[in-house]
Amino acid sequence: MKQFDFEQVGKRMPYSVPDGFFDKLEADVMQKVNETSALPNRRKRALRIALPAAMAVAASVVLFFALKTTLPKNEAVDFESVELAFNNLSTEDQEYLLLVYEQDEFIYDLTDYELQFNNEEE
Amino acid sequence: MASDKEIIRTMQVNSEQGFRLLMAGYKEPLYWHIRRLVVNHADAQDAAQEAFVRIFRNFSQYNEENSFRAWLFRIATNEALRLIERRHNESVSIEGLSDILADSYVNYGDLEAVHLQKAILRLPAKQQLAFNLRYYDELSYEEIAEVAGSSAASAKMNYHLAKEKIIEYMQKNN
């Protein structure tokens, strides 16, 4: 019986690949990788815009109620400065603020409650 | 070719640049490793793509105390095994043997090489893996153990068992 010798075959394989296959594989993988790494970047950018806006909303809500409790009851709250600050924001931030306001049940309900409370007082 | 350390350092500083170095050094070894397991070129292409994307996404999970090469081969192996399992669920095929006959990217003229692949494909999975990683990719037994999730001693035993079975098959079929 003929003795099999690994050295005769070596690392030779019967398999082959299409021409230019490895370049295509690299290009396809890089494209997929760039697609996946682009997603978190978009999220980070959105967060960079949204986070200061959200903080501004929270701060203005706190300020609003703080002023309301410290000011004399019959003194009207001056919204001019709030309006001015709002107008100075970019359209994107303005839209975001309105969206947060509409979607935030706490702020929304509280404001409703304040309105109702004021009406009852009147 | 950049060293593993160089690839790791570059990946940590600039992931895209580092990954290009990784691709340059490993696209062929990992593809061929997957190909030897799944046999069919189109399947190997899919599994290789998926493996590289996983490597990129999970790079932060790589533990520098372990072999980088073994970590890469482990991901590639898992991807190949996942694909084989999926294919087995789709149709009953005996260890990829039918794929050798069906794939157009196989040189049937090289009978000895075809027989060797058939002999490897008949081996149990752990022996097949140990043989391929040692014989073709020259991984150490410690690295093979990391890839297979076993001990170095078990990897060595599997390699030698595989070699004996292959010799037996080749002598019968030559």
Oligomer status: heterodimer
Mean pLDDT of chain A: 72
| Shape, principal axes of CA atoms of chain B | globular
Shape of chain A: rod-shaped
User: What share of residues of chain B is helical?
Assistant: over 70%
- DSSP strand (E) fraction of chain A? under 5%
Task: Determine the strand fraction of chain B and express it as a percent band.
Answer: under 5%
CATH names the topology of the largest domain in chain B as Rna Polymerase Sigma Factor, Chain: A
Q: Indicate the mean pLDDT of chain B.
A: 91
Q: What's the end-to-end separation of chain A, in Å?
A: 111 Å
- The level 1 CATH classification of the largest domain in chain B is Mainly Alpha
Briefly note the structural class of the backbone of chain A: mainly alpha
Fold topology:
The complex is a heterodimer of chains A (122) and B (174).
Chain A: H1 6-9, H2 21-70, H3 80-88, H4 91-103, H5 105-121
Helix pairs in contact in A: 2-4
Chain B: H1 4-13, H2 15-38, H3 41-57, H4 68-90, H5 97-102, H6 111-121, H7 125-135, H8 141-148, H9 152-173
Q: Can you put this structure into words, describing what you see?
A:
- The complex is a heterodimer of chains A (122) and B (174).
- By secondary structure, chain A is mainly α.
- Chain A has a domain at 41-122.
- Chain A contains five helices and no strands.
- By secondary structure, chain B is mainly alpha-helical.
- Chain B has two domains: 1-105, RNA polymerase sigma factor, region 2, helix turn helix motif (Rna Polymerase Sigma Factor, Chain: A), CATH 1.10.1740; 107-174, Arc Repressor Mutant, subunit A (Orthogonal Bundle).
- Chain B is globular, with a radius of gyration of 17 Å.
- Chains A and B meet through helix 1 and helix 2 of A and helix 2, helix 3, helix 6 and helix 9 of B.
